[in-house]
Amino acid sequence: TTQTVHPTPIYETVAMGLVAWALWRARNAFRPGVLFACYLVLAGSERFLVEFLRRNDDVAFGLTAPQLASLGMMVAGLVWIWVANRRGGVRAVSAYAPTS
Hints:
The model has no long low-confidence stretch (mean pLDDT 87). The chain is mainly alpha-helical. The chain is elongated, with a radius of gyration of 17 Å. The protein has helices spanning 8-25, 34-50, 65-86. Helix 1 (8-25) runs antiparallel to helix 2 and helix 2 runs antiparallel to helix 3.
């Protein structure tokens, strides 16, 4: 293109590197599956925001196709976390925690 554009791949690499670091640090804090739900929310948020800087055509509601897919990811992740929380919480249970 001859138009000036943002270096969105760099933005995405930095943002998802931070997400990966945060999820790696939290890997033992959540029940199985919840960490993936957190990934869905964070990756969806990152992509949704970066798409505002790209030059893609709107598809529906003033949003691009990747933004709509990102909203789907975020909703799926939030529903997953909500269901996990209702079914006993999202935090991991330590094998060494005292039971009462």
